[in-house]
Amino acid sequence: MSTIARTDTSVLGRWWWTVDRWTLGALFLLVLIGALLVMAASPPVAERINLDGLYFVRRQFMILPVALLVMVGVSLMTPVQVRRFSCLGLAVTLGLLLLVPLIGPEIKGAHRWIGIGGMTLQPSEFAKPFFAVASAWMFAEWRRDPEFPGHIVAIGLYLIVVALLLSQPDLGMTVVVSAIWFGQFFLAGMPLVLVFGLIGLGVSGLIGAYFLFPHVSSRIDRFLDPSSGDSYQVDRSLEAFMNGGLMGTGPGEGTVKAYLPDAHADFIFSVAGEEFGGIACLVIISIYAFIVLRGYARLLSEPSLFVLLAATGLLTQFALQALVHMGSAVNLMPAKGMTLPFLSYGGSSLIALGIAMGMALALTRRRSGAGEDLP
Amino acid sequence: MNPISRSVKIDGVAKQAIEIGRNRLLVAGCLIALGFAAVGGRVIELSALRDHNEPNVASSSGTTLTTGRADILDRNGMLLATSLRTPSLYGDPKEILDADRAAQRLVTVLTDLNPAEVAAQLKTERRFVWLKRTLTPTEQFEVNNLGIPGLHFQDEWRRVYPQGPLTAHAIGYTNVDGMGLAGLEQAFDDVLRSGRDPLRLSLDLRVQHIVREELARQIISFEGIGGTGVVLDVDSGETIAMVSLPDFDPNGSGDIPDEAEFNRASLGVYEMGSTFKIFNTAMALEEGTTTLTGGYDATNPIKISRFTINDDHPKARWLSTPEIFMYSSNIGSVKMAMDAGTEAQKTFMGRIGFLGKLPLELPERGRPLWPGTWREINTMTIAFGHGISVSPMHLASGVATVVNGGIKQPITLLRTDAPGPGERVISEQTSHDMRRLMRLVVLGGTGRKSAAEGYLIGGKTGTAEKPGGRGGYKKKSLISSFVAAFPMNAPRYVVLIMVDEPKGQKHSHGYASGGWVAAPAVKRIVERAAPLLGVAAVDENAPEIRRELMIEVPSRGGKRNATF
């Protein structure tokens, strides 16, 4: 199938034979499904806000090739390059995160966006993968040389990022970043006492958020007791799955997209459930599970702790984002607006995902023995 | 520690670390796998195992779905108001290529539109401008035939009144957005919006039509400025017909003139004049201060301060109670009222319902006007229907109470199959006396022109001068009315006809009184409507009917002592 010979030692040649082509294929498949779903879900949303029906579709189709190119480009890097790239990227995004509350416009009560040359950018989307790689490096260094206080640096980084995210406020992103960071710390050999302690802290943090942020408490109240308030969006979402059944109503035949304000982003899984059916949803879930679990499996034989931690962080971020989105849509957890990786509409999200999965691909590339022990 | 051992140690630590990492990665992997499995299971549960025959997206969606207002029907189920889905034309200026040309072409089809206005609207920056609401199917077809891009239709509910102006004042109307603005459309706005069951009225379309036609005939014939006609069921209080002229077509889109929109039957309050002698006499009989065999001297006018109360047709002699009623003697009526007393009169007016708004469902209800301090002079004028203003519906309702055996039944515009017990205002005996007196007016008094053979009509005329601008009365501006009930042996319906400012005509020998203007209309209404209402004509000379309605008319003047 390939026109690239195994003996080809060019950059692309070596990439092709070392990259995880199954994961790459699965990611391309996701992008294809995503293109299809945005075409199905976004026109009613666009028309409702008085835009041309295909406005979101055109934008998504412009971004998708860029995201794929970014992903492939990033996956050409070596682990060391990934690390340098991340540190640089983290510095830039932290700077942007600092700027967001100052220059970003307020949208729906939060400062999350920043306008750059006619485009809007959500720096927190980019902070996630860079932070995962940077903290992985710090944890790995800490384990490699116990005298190096890598975990202290990692904790410091974490606190900075969380503080910036909470100031926006972006609680969903904070939870995801916390979970990734905790997971990495856990893998890096966090003492079990601390594991349970931090789990307790996380739970109390969520409870604190419940009391501190009114929009969080109302969301959770509504999840625990749907009759306590307006569960409009979740109800529509559940109806979408029921209406779709196993086979779906057919592309374009759905109704939920006409009732949900963010059908093309935060509720695209519901659109998939209605128009393409339960079986198609299972296929989508399987693709996510395949990408994440296959990545994990490859990492089991990974000799470098940094690569192990960094790739786990990136894959876990990917998995959590998918799980939160899908879990909200089927009401397994309180509704949380989060994009479904590669399927939802959203420019920043797509490019950031391209970078994240590009880095994950780069880290899970097969390397010759010489590269085992990274400096 | 030498460098080699340190390196080995680090190596060992690193090895151990990666080992821990791998083990814990398995745990993380299992958790993630579990998460995906849970979501997958939930998707299957929702899509395959839940009952999903009927998505309730439509019924429970937050956007209110317009389902059209409920219909309004008359008592026999005839359609008075309904809602139709009709297309409305709007333009999207962004899609319009040439606004001026589009406007020019559009007005060739929709001729009531102004081309300049349409062009101006189509040049705005908006994406949605209404051009014309509720088109007919033909108009929609013609607009489509023009093939102008950027013109679109949106279906809307349009309220349609198939009977046009016939029941306009009762039903009222809605605005283009289907909100009730007048009449029952306003009073029952919530019910009509939410209800799928039609609103059943007490009106009978056939009788309504007859009353409107006969009333209009008299208004034209006597050059009146308006009038009202009411038919009530005396036992249930149901309004069978309620007409106010001039009226309006609620289907029209234009502004309704105030004069036409004004409901004279329920909103207008008038000094009714002599028809009030019904209540004056009933009160006096009920109080026992006057009897049917008694009477009063009506030889001389009554002078009180600067007023003089006189009779229109002075007999200048002693008059018996039936004569006072029959000849509509003001002098006799005043004396009757004075005997009963101010307090009794005020109480009676209150109990019969003349001192408050009607219990009718319409928003358009007039508040009666009556003296704040009820002096003797007020008692005297109220005896013959001046100094107190009530609506014609009040009057008809009061007459129903007087003739039906004395029970006040709240009047209504809704069909009532089981009326409540009502409230007793006068005794059976007084009611019976009043029926005989009212019959007397038709047989030998001012109401002779209403005698419809076989229907035993009884009633009372009223010819009131309208109040003038300076506290006096205008001799030439009359309110001429006739209020009747039939059949008088066992009354079923009250009929009231009132004409506003009729002028004396050649054919009426210059008269514009209630007996000339209103009584003939009542006669024709009864003749036409009674068969529809299930009232059969009877032999007026049948012995049992004669016995029922017989009344002695004593006359001390010695001229005659008649029995009717």
- Alpha-beta content class of chain B: alpha+beta
SSE string of chain A, helices as H and strands as E:
HHHHEEEEHHHHHHHHHH
Q: Uncertain segments of chain B of ≥5 residues (pLDDT<50)?
A: 54-65
Question: Remind me, CATH topology of the largest domain in chain B?
Answer: Beta-lactamase
Helix content of chain A: 55-70%
**What's the rounded overall pLDDT mean of chain B?**
87
From the structure above, extract its key features.
heterodimer; A: 375 residues; mainly alpha; 4 strands; B: alpha+beta; Penicillin-binding protein 2a (Domain 2); Beta-lactamase; 2 domains; 22 strands; 19% strand
Structural overview:
The complex is a heterodimer of chains A (375) and B (564). Chain A has 375 residues and is mainly α. Chain A is built from 14 helices and 4 strands. In chain A, the strands form 2 sheets. Chain A has a two-stranded antiparallel ribbon with strand order 1-2. Chain A has a two-stranded antiparallel ribbon with strand order 3-4. With 564 residues, chain B is α+β, with helices and mostly antiparallel strands. Helices cover 38% and strands 19% of the residues of chain B. In chain B, the strands form 8 sheets. In chain B, strands 1, 2, 3, 4 and 7 form a 5-stranded mixed β-sheet that branches. A 5-stranded antiparallel β-sheet of chain B has the order 9-8-20-19-18, with helices on both faces. Chain B is elongated and about 140 Å long. Mean pLDDT of chain B is 87; it is low at 54-65. The interface between A and B is large, with 54 and 37 residues.
